[in-house]
Amino acid sequence: MSGWLALWARRASVPLASLLAAGVLLAGLDHALPPPPMPEVSALVTDREGRALRAFPVEDGRWRLPVDPEAVDPAFRAALIEIEDQRFHSHHGVDPLAMARAVTSLVSAGRIVSGGSTITMQTARLLEPRPRRTIGAKLIEMVRAIQLERRYSKHEILQAWLTLAPYGGNLEGVRAASWAWFGHEPDVLTPDEIALLIALPQAPEARRPDLRPDAAMASRARLLARMERAGLISADRAADAAEEPAPSRRAFPARAWHASQHLARAGGEIRSTLDIRLQSALETRLETLANEAGPDVQASALIVSLDGREVRAAVGSAGRRRPGGWIDLTRRARSPGSVLKPFIYGLAFEDGLAGPGTRIADLPRRFADYNPENFDRSFRGDVTIAEALQHSLNVPAVQVLDAVGANRFLAAMSFAGGRAIVPRSSEGDAGLAIALGGLGITAEEIAVMFAALGAGGEALPLAWTPQAAAANRQSRGFRLLDRLAAATLVDVLQRSPAPPGRMPARLTSGAPAIAYKTGTSYGFRDAWAAGVSGNYAVVVWVGRADGAPRPGETGRHAALPALFDIFDVIARRDPSGIASRTDSLVASNATGPLARFERGVSGPDIVFPPDGAEVWADEPGRGFALSARGQGALRWYQRGVPVALDAGGQSLWQPQGPGFYELTVVDEAGRSARTRVRVRMPES
Which residues contact 585 (CB under 8 A, 6 or more apart)? Predict the structure, then answer.
């Protein structure tokens, strides 16, 4: 960095005193020359503890990572100042003693022994490079150095040098160099690494370890010898360090590829809520899943902490070399299949229409022009709401959505953050097919809803930064479900049938049960599994990026095992976070008016006696033939007491006297209709 001394020595026409006088004179131009601009630095996304996830180059593909001097090994900082600028903390940009020593040694030795440029002068040159190293350029460099000292602290000047120092090729700054040559942060450096990081900026291209390893090792050895003479390291350590092989160029960190790309738009160093350990484990698990599923298969997943809704891990695809690998599939709308069914039942619980023990008919049923079938095309007859949800029966879900209202369900999703792509009828109403996945929704939006389910029904947006998480903790959010409905759903979903080889809804680690739901879209295009346990919600999607079908691949088979594996990883990484946090609310098994689900169901149609009618009886005990239209055999009851049948099998009702009576007819599916009549007699 001191080639200008040789130029001056050859010319022997510029005395050192004159140079210093000119520097002082030019310092008066401080206000005439604007300070050099600080350059753009690479965006760097780190995890929640500051560990690098992914770095992004700046213009011309250069790597220039932001550097905090306090995060650089103190031994490196001490060696840098000792070798490059011993009076860095005391001079004002230009060190006359160092320059005098440099000229004296040049004259006496006939060659450059030491340079006269301070770290501040080097920083000025890095901020404002000049193509030719002339005396005039050196004078401007001195002025710039004085200018920098007036405007910035020593800490900031050192930070600029550590960020801009050239390290060969497209590497700038000690942090980029440490990642490229050693594969780690410069917070802890060995003596051989320290020596190389000081030697390289002096001749970055001539000493590049990947192109000229012998020159790199020789310059490193000379630096180690100087460090030994300065008392920075022992002779033994210097000798051992000099024997280390020249390093090779390494790749920069590239974890959380898609999430980091989204976060990097803010520029600079961005600390995220991601956890590099969970992120690495999730990327590995999904890559294995996709490899086992086939060359065209992709997978994506999210891990969300309920506390502040922090996203702890996010995988947009299971490998960029696979088809669709460059697409963030957690942000692409897909059909959810049956994943959203729990929230349909949750709204019914909240409205008082049903409870987990409410019985409902799983039988063929047409809803206007919509005729849903179960996935296996079989029907179970009379089941409880809990059983219908745990076994993902379709007809009961459509039946309950018909009662809750499709538009109300969509409104709840939209307020919770789900921007569903929904087909609507000509009247502007959403269709009942949304109960079975007839809409588009993203994995991120599903994560919002399942996180709400585990947090007592309160929905909040996903947080990707600590600042966003802090804002969530201060926000009331949107109440997707009331606390009792949410707790009831969690209890029901925890009892769902476990995947093969697992205890019912339990983790291998023995942690609390998982409340989960799977989904398979029409034509086997999308396989889903979403669940919540303790303080975490997880969503997994498996399919093809182009939406092509994968016959026979269901959410239970393709995605659910990975969901359980991911919760196992969470339990090992954060045992306290996976501890149960479900509200201690006990849901009723539905008795009385909730014993049978009847809202929105077309039951039997009473022909005689019509509701509100008056009938005349000539005498007590006279019989009336009851008539109704309905499916299968019909049974009549008066206040819960069966009405007797006559010899022909006809229900014959015999009122005992005048007054008001209530009759109920029930079909084979348990659907009923009531009529209230008044019986009158001549004397009444």
Answer: 483, 484, 487, 488
